[in-house]
Amino acid sequence: MKNAVIAQSGGPTAVINNSIRGAIDGLKAAKKMDKIYGARRI
């Protein structure tokens, strides 16, 4: 089982949101990850 975690630094912006979206789309297209998690600081 392979998993990925995606985290961002700084506040949400259109550029960061699109970068994260691109990473998720790339991981899904590669079909090599079982799960993709998002990290969130609370």
Top keywords for this entry?
alpha+beta, 40% helix, two-stranded parallel ribbon, 42 residues, flat, 1 helix
Mean pLDDT: 87
Shape: flat
Low-pLDDT parts are none
SSE succession: EHE
Report the radius of gyration as a whole number of Å: 11 Å
Strand order of the largest sheet: 1-2
The portion of residues forming beta strands comes to: 15-25%
The total domain count is 1
Quantity of strands, as a count: 2
Main beta sheet strand tally, sense and closure = 2 strands, parallel
Question: Treating each run of at least 4 consecutive H or I residues as one helix, how many helices?
Answer: 1
Kindly name the structural category: alpha+beta
Span between termini: 27 Å
Helix content: 40-55%
Characterize this entry briefly.
The chain has 42 residues and is of the alpha+beta class.
